[in-house]
Amino acid sequence: MAQCVQSVQELIPDSFVPCVAALCSDEAERLTRLNHLSFAELLKPFSRLTSEVHMRDPNNQLHVIKNLKIAVSNIITQPPQPGAIRKLLNDVVSGSQPAEGLVANVITAGDYDLNISATTPWFESYRETFLQSMPASDHEFLNHYLACMLVASSSEAEPVEQFSKLSQEQHRIQHNSDCSYPKWFIPNTLKYYVLLHDASAGDEQRAESIYEEMKQKYGTQGCYLLKINSRTSNRASDEQIPDPWSQYLQKNSIQNQESYEDGHCTITSNKNSDSNLLSLDGLDNEVKDGLPNNFRAHPLQLDPSGDPSNSIDGPDHVKSASSLHETKKANTGIIHGACLTLTDHDRIRQFIQEFTFRGLLPHIEKTIRQLNDQLISRKGLSRSLFSATKKWFSGSKVPEKSINELKNTSGLLYPPEAPELQIRKMADLCFLVQHYDLAYSCYHTAKKDFLNDQAMLYAAGALEMAAVSAFLQPGAPRPYPAHYMDTAIQTYRDICKNMVLAERCVLLSAEILKSQGKYSEAAALLIRLTSEDSDLRSALLLEQAAHCFINMKSPMVRKYAFHMILAGHRFSKAGQKKHALRCYCQAMQVYKGKGWSLAEDHINFTIGRQSYTLRQLDNAVSAFRHILINESKQSAAQQGAFLREYLYVYKVNTYFGVDTKIIFK
Amino acid sequence: MAVCVAVIAKENYPLYIRSVPTENELKFHYMVHTSLDVVDEKISAMGKALVDQRELYLGLLYPTEDYKMFRKLHSSYTDVMCNPFYNPGDCIQSRAFDSMVTSMMIQVC
């Protein structure tokens, strides 16, 4: 894989963070909106703790947590639609292009001197967005809400009343059987009351007195007075206040978007593949590299009958890119946090620190203790008696009731109070606070239970997290159990048919293998997950596999080139034309002038077509020219087609300055 | 039995490459090129002790090949080399070589 900004030891804890919900009153929301931010967005840049925190584990050992981050988000009552997620990921990748004039690495392998960039920031953006946007599911508790912040403003008529209303609202959302989303960790969610005070417009005395009242009612540890909006006048920026929010808001988060056409992105990608540059051939034979053998449009097929004029999918391309451009424009025009001073920033940081240290962590500690006690008391009954009674009276588990349930969990559904789920909950909590030893042992126990019960989805989840905890354990007492991950991936993909979860496993596992230097295993893993259903995912994974090959001790340059070509093909099918062009150009460096004329011709042809679509006409002309210069081993029909293409593009290029609109229609 | 035959020069470019015409030639070209990586790996793993190697057949890259076929190919190749008019590094254009390859490809197809 390409080098990433974060090491794997930073990436994994950052991907699994304690989730906190935020429920705001209208008045409080109005206060934060003065900064063009919602309450949750306001907290985002400050949600990483600057100092270490510690807590006690069930054995009363002190456990230190470094660099803890929390995720605060507004409550959404519906799981994000897969179509919306796909669109978001598409936008993120197309928005992240290699910078112009990027300093590239020169890699020398044998007689190949390659100029390629060692980093792939678009992949990192994709991965981050993908991991953040995973919907919460029933078989794991990592992104269930642990706590809820209830926010009201000091400028309201009856703030205390408002708090009880918010509290009831949260209770309703959690316990009402209609709302199955969002998911909450335990029935007794921590409630943290925040009084938001506008320092420039509000009454300080009143705020303080209300805060005193709250402290009486909810305890000192359960509430906080947060003062914001200290900036009094709209000074036309004589001091430059940093805007840490823009980097979080450019990712058009799902929670902020209103409505979606579910099929929108699928329509776009279908159009792209119809007017695709490569002909749709029948099913092909098995490709030895282990690729799926049913490429509908074979990447290595030339289309002699296609005409450049047909391949202009300008409107589609423009449409999918325009949404991102609009949001970017909208965001760059707005200044975020205009009413906040640096003191306010510090206050927010302090608030998060207080919340975590005095509210969240004690709650987590208490919950872990409770779960631990429950588990020990259960173990008190003799194990054999318990399992015997389970077998004879078929416990309290729900047998397969409908086909839908069967599809999801492949057989078994646990009721929320089942002891196996308690173990999983405890394991997840330990993982979230970075206590990997305890997490590993709990996951291991949970895995055994789930496998015994043949609850495959749950087992896969436990295996995945057990492998990750084993890797992250300090002191590395055991080697990384790669077979756990492999089983998990296989289960997710084949039995549970859940590609999203399988993809998460692959992303984490590949990163771990890369950090251990096992590049060929990582590459094999990445390639195994490429499939027909998602072009963007396959393209990104193929590109990462290519980078794995080139980063090996003895770089496999040709495999790198081959996989870059495959990645380029998938990118163009996914509508990411710039990335496609980039991949083909990088692959070209390997094939250039080496005498593999058919391959070279194919790449030049594709580069020519892609450059043409992206309006880089000079590139297109020179690419096509290269095909014609060398002695060609192609058939006569093929050579004729190449010549026609060249003449067409050359003609367009010559007339370029004149009237492009007519030509490109 | 063979669907594609390729002879690669030391400098990693193809001296001779031919596939059964009904198949997608481009695909085979790519495959052969990519599999050179595996060949490289095997060669470097062998080390200097076997420089004067009798082990011409590097083993099965994928366990489907026929050893006899390789022998025939290799002996035809040496014949081509022996031709005094053949410059090493040129593409192979001998008719005898062509016909031998055709016979190999038609054999079991």
From TrEMBL, chain A:
It comes from the Eukaryota. One of its GO terms (cellular component) is TRAPPIII protein complex. Residues 289-320 are annotated as: Disordered. Pfam families: TRAPPC-Trs85. This is Trafficking protein particle complex subunit 8. It comes from Equus asinus. The lineage of its organism: Eukaryota, Metazoa, Chordata, Craniata, Vertebrata.
TrEMBL record, chain B:
The keyword Transferase does not apply. Transmembrane segments: none annotated. Keywords: ER-Golgi transport, Transport. InterPro entries: Longin-like_dom_sf, Sedlin, TRAPPC2L. One of its GO terms (cellular component) is perinuclear region of cytoplasm. One of its GO terms (biological process) is endoplasmic reticulum to Golgi vesicle-mediated transport. Gene3D superfamilies: 3.30.450.70. SUPFAM superfamilies: SNARE-like (SSF64356). It comes from the Eukaryota. The keyword Transport applies. Pfam families: Sedlin_N (PF04628). It is found in: Cytoplasm, Perinuclear region. Belongs to the TRAPP small subunits family. Sedlin subfamily. This is Trafficking protein particle complex subunit 2-like protein. It comes from Equus asinus (Donkey). The lineage of its organism: Eukaryota, Metazoa, Chordata, Craniata, Vertebrata.
